[in-house]
Amino acid sequence: MRVNLKQQIMKRKILLCGVLALSAAGMMTACTPVKEYQKNRLNDAEMTLSSRKVEKNESNFQSYREGASGANGGKTGGGCGCN
Amino acid sequence: MKRICLTVVGMYFMLLHAFSQVTRDSSVFRPRKLKLDEVDLVSSYYTQNGDHSAVRGGIGSEKVTDLANGLELKWVGWDAHQRKNTLTAGLGIDHHTAASQAYISKTGASRRTDGLRLYPSLDWTRENERKGTSFSLGAYYSNEFNYQSIGFSAGGTKKTKSNGELGLKLSGYFDRVKLIFPSEFEPAYTSAGGGGREDRHPDYGSSPRETYTASFSYTQVINTRLQAAFLFDLVEQHGYLGLPFHRVYFNDGSDLVEKLPSNRFKLPLGVRLNYFLGDKVILRSYYRYYVDNWGIRSHTASLEVPVKLTPFFSVTPFYRYYVQSAANYFAAYEQHLTTDTYYSSNYALSAFSSHFFGAGIRMAPPKGLFNSHLSTLELRFGHYTQTTDLVSNVVSLHLQFK
């Protein structure tokens, strides 16, 4: 019974990864050529593809209070966060 | 604390006068020596409360306050090969208070309930705009009473022909954890006077902790309004990964110091999608899946919606949802068995979900604010709740001078 449940969970995970990979691949092939002069919106300071400086300390406390960290373009070590 | 605030205010005013007028003849390329180009100041005040202190084995106050101030100076120059060189020097100073620190002494009598953290950093980037490549090096240091860390990084990026960019960054952190044990586990030591043992002990030992990370990124412009980033880290940690003053109480009432495996492998995978909707609204979305070999699986999803009330003034509401499963080594107060190999009652390793929401404002007029070098002002407030009953608030201010 437990083995079946694990298998089902694994199948769902594989399906989810497949859907994500296909979505990413679809997105990449759907790219349209964008010239430099057409990037005025993309170059807006709030369109940046990383955490903003004002969020730095929020990311710090989240990485200390939660089990997960990383994949956000920030630091991945250093500092205790002991308290 | 007052001294830190006054120092920071003093630095703000000094920086207002730190820039000089720069004129460049754009028709002919000339190398330019490094010149101060940008100064950033980020200050945050964080408060937290909860009832699952790891110092007391999963019970007791988790009250914390933290005032963090960071200064970053950026110099930019071009060499004879038309490569852009950027040197960034940073200095951070945090002051915190933590109610749980008093309970490093079993009776709650430890006098040290606050602390300072200093963390300077240095980054250098060389960017070749013609080739679409960049190379960077970084060095970091962090020092607080019970923890020292030194870190290095090296990275590079390469633009693709289809408006994409590949990035790789390798970093290593070499930390030392000072072995401050709860008072009942300290070796016998006789001294005159009362107070917490950590104030009296002449020399603590320390234990190493190492973190190695390979961070991969790929960013892609999808159309004139949409761009994406795929982020992927491989993180390996070795050494003393628990904290020596975290207690664990077992089901027979006895207690010991938290014990966790000496290695941990983390695998976070993230994706960002930013979309410019119409002329005034931006949708900034982020999703991360995380897995590690301690048994934690987590999902993070967030959405920020900057609304441009004018081209230079925006309001940004945001929401973040986080959920994780428990680490294999976590159990609550008096739930661990004495036969367990590894044990911890740190609720950061428990199963929970959290909500984080708030709003921010951003002002960035083209001629600066108040007719000064202050080019950008951002203010942001967030409220955080965990299903473990932990509640916190954080307010942050970012000032950028150009």
Question: Can you characterise this structure?
Answer:
The complex is a heterodimer of chains A (83) and B (402). By secondary structure, chain A is mainly alpha-helical. Chain A is 46% helix and 0% strand. Chain A has two helices and no strands. The radius of gyration of chain A is 20 Å and the shape is flat. The model of chain A has no long low-confidence stretch (mean pLDDT 76). With 402 residues, chain B is mainly beta. Chain B has one helix and 19 strands. Chain B has one helix spanning 2-16, and strands at residues 32-49, 64-78, 83-98, 114-128, 133-144, 147-159, 164-178, 206-221, 226-239, 247-249, 255-257, 263-277, 281-292, 297-304, 307-310, 313-324, 352-363, 374-386, 391-401. Residues 194-199 of chain B have low confidence and may be disordered. At the A-B interface, helix 1 and helix 2 of A face strand 1, strand 2, strand 4, strand 5 and strand 6 of B.
- Which term fits the overall shape of chain B? globular
Distance between the termini of chain A: 42 Å
Estimate the strand proportion of chain B: over 45%
Low-confidence spans of chain A: none
Task: Please name the CATH topology of one domain in chain B.
Answer: Porin
State the secondary-structure class of chain B.
mainly beta
Radius of gyration of chain B, rounded? 24 Å
Quaternary structure classification: heterodimer
